Amino acid sequence: MHGFTDETRALGEEILRYAAERLALDPVPLDGTRTVAELDAVAGGAITAQGKGGQDALKLFEDHLALACLSTDHPRYLSFIPCAPTREAAMFDLVVGASSIYAGSWLEGAGAVYAENQALRWIADLVGLPEAAGGSFVQGGTIGNLSSLVTARATARERATGGARPYRIAATVGSHSSIATACRVMDAEQVPVPMNDRMQMTGDNLRKVLEDNGPETFFAVVATAGSTNFGVIDDLDSIADVCEEYGIWFHVDGAYGGAGLAAPSVRDKYAGVERCDSFIVDPHKWLFAPFDCCALLYREPALARVAHTQHASYLDVLTDTPDWNPTDYSVGLTRRARGLPFWFSLVANGTDAYTAAIERTLEVTRFAQAEIERRDHVEVVREADLSVLVFRRLGWEAKDYHAWSDGILAREEGFVVPTSHLGETLARFAIVNPRTTEDDITALLDSMA
Ligand SMILES: *Cc1c(COP(=O)(O)O)cnc(C)c1O
């Protein structure tokens, strides 16, 4: 099975055909979920001692398993945060898979690491980070946040005087669930910062929390640049002032919203982001890369290298050099060159195309907001800062939202799960797919009438 025969070539052609046809679909089918019993009936016992052959295995995927997976790039998949890769990024993922590249070290993956660093530099420039900034691409925002916070704590403990061991982070309740997860993993404590009437963290509220709890007990402040539920950007500049005043690490979680930095129409909302110590954005969300891809950046990467480098005798050849080894900047060791599909698409399409695509999703979001305001049966809960919009269907209870959501999914018309806020069930659109149109929005709102 490591040889390349005529049969292998035929299978390769079939796989490329399948991939090309999938990428050409417009619109893609939404598909639907299935039960274990349903999948058992069609795909149970697929792994056998003799093997079924590649053609049959592909057929099993194509005819049964693929249909049991929702297409996150369907234009009416507006739940969670969708993933709508560019054709170039999706195609290049195949190349990365075929190339057997180890991208954890410069020695082994110099070409890939060089390219990934170019893509990271584009993001660092959008943020406004200095030339020395750097980091790596990790699996997702969860690992990006965890890696940043591990670095923040190691740095704070290194700098603390008198044996102090800061163990707290400050963040709002609007921060992502991965912050609470990071705290559990790290045995740290998350202290909630109250939000203002725009659901933002502000420097004043932060200062009060630090003073009430003892600023020396905190090792990081996590601000969100585009909260997942509402797309809220915290008041980054005033938060940066307070972090600077107390000498506390300033982490900005832009996993979803960081992409808006490339959109002139919303760029001013991020004022102060350039003052962060660490920053993340998931290109698999609003920067059109395939799963799974998070860009993690540090103002001073050397601090992360101290916190994360794994030492072992068999690794000395890698760690005892000044080379840029991506694996030294995050939790984890082995890594796929997961930034390469994103890099390839940036090179192929140019950054103006990214700006245009992000602006297009913002335009459709503004259309959705105006359309909701115009209709009697729905109302906006909070004006959208970015491309997430939460709204209320007047007269509906939780069960009505769920019945509507289940209905459109069963009919393969859309995937829009309800969210909740302050105990109330609500509807939510997350629009990061440039192929989502005004007509998609109108059709979904009509279906709630
Ligand atoms: C999605 C998200 C995360 C987590 O990212 P994953 O890639 O799902 O691990 C963290 N923070 C914010 C604000 C997010 O939207």
Describe the model.
- The protein has 449 residues and is of the alpha/beta class.
- The protein has two domains: 94-349, Aspartate Aminotransferase, domain 2; 351-446, Aspartate Aminotransferase, domain 1 (Alpha-Beta Complex), CATH 3.90.1150.
- The chain has 16 helices and eleven strands.
- The strands form two sheets. A seven-stranded mixed β-sheet has the order 1-7-6-5-4-2-3, sandwiched between helices. Strands 8-9-11-10 form a four-stranded antiparallel β-sheet, covered by helices on one side.
- α4 (87-98) crosses α13 (340-349), α6 (141-159) packs across α11 (301-308) and α14 (351-374) packs parallel to α16.
- It is globular.
- Pyridoxal-5'-phosphate (PLP) binds at residues 81, 140-142, 145, 176, 178, 224, 228, 253, 255-256, 282, 294.
Which helices and strands occur, and which strands form pairs?
Blueprint: H1 6-24, H2 36-43, H3 54-65, H4 87-98, H5 106-127, E1 134-138, H6 141-159, E2 168-171, H7 177-186, E3 189-192, H8 203-213, E4 218-224, H9 236-246, E5 249-253, E6 278-281, H10 283-286, E7 294-298, H11 301-308, H12 316-319, H13 340-349, H14 351-374, E8 378-382, E9 388-393, H15 398-410, E10 419-421, E11 424-430, H16 438-446
Parallel strand pairs: 2-3, 2-4, 4-5, 5-6
Antiparallel strand pairs: 1-7, 6-7, 8-9, 9-11, 10-11
Bound molecules: pyridoxal-5'-phosphate (PLP).
Pyridoxal-5'-phosphate (PLP) binds near residues 142, 145, 176, 178 and 253.
